[in-house]
Amino acid sequence: MSAHTADTELRLVxxxxxxxxxxxxxxxxIGAGKGSLExxxxxxxxxxxxxxxxxxxxxSLRGRLRSLLEQxxxxxxxxxxxxxxxxxxxxVRIHQSDRPDDEICLLFGRSPGRMERVTGExxxxxxxxxxxxxxxxxxxxxxxISPQMRESLDDELTEVKSENAIDRITSQANPRTLxxxxxxxxxxxxxxxxxxxxxxxxxxxxxxxxxxxLEDDSLGGGGSRGSGRVRFGNLRLxxxxxxxxxxxxxxxxxxxxxxxxxxxxxxxxDDFSGKLAE
Length: 278
What we know:
Layout: E1 14-24, E2 55-56, H1 58-72, E3 81-85, E4 92-95, H2 103-108, E5 113-115, E6 123-125, E7 133-135, E8 138-139, H3 147-151, E9 159-166, E10 173-180, E11 186-195, H4 203-215, E12 230-241, H5 242-247, E13 252-258, H6 260-267
Antiparallel strand pairs: 1-11, 1-12, 2-8, 3-4, 5-6, 7-11, 9-10, 12-13
Helix pairs in contact: 1-4, 4-6
């Protein structure tokens, strides 16, 4: 539990920069929406940048981390969820509270105001918390798609997975296709965690917890059918205190070329917070 209170004063101490690679252990599908359908293309295309290369939107990665942390904290229950959207068939429910020590709201931010709970009385929150965590879009590393991989792909950088939905009465198959980034592809990730007070120095361990949960879960669509298994590697953690920005002091490299286990061991060290000086 966080040590934050309603009287905690916020002032930039510095920023933790986590960079590295996201490895696709199985095909990855993050959908582009129906507006991107092309004649002769897959039913469900992946999102691509302006150059036609797949990427992982920061919003998708950030949202998955939030969802997993809410579940692991026991906060994905009706009494803790509020509606962002109640449009039928497109409901969006997330956790939000007005507790000043709520680490999910501290990491991902919250706005004051009235929000309708899934069950119970509406949330009348007076707490406003700036989001500490920024998740950047993760571009594809093109050289991770080798010439040998390209020979068997349906497109230059992606594959098309065919699936069937079976009617339980008639046994009729309803075929569908899913565009995926192939297993073996890598994306460049970048997270920025703002430390705005001494109490925030406990938040890096929650971020790493979310990343470890994701490695044993899935990212994007089709996770229950085998898509979206990912792994993080070649991680580099650096610290930029406020004097880095004000006076040009050098950043401090805390870890390099590491996996999540090494990163978690670092942020859980008793003296880790002492390394995050202004």
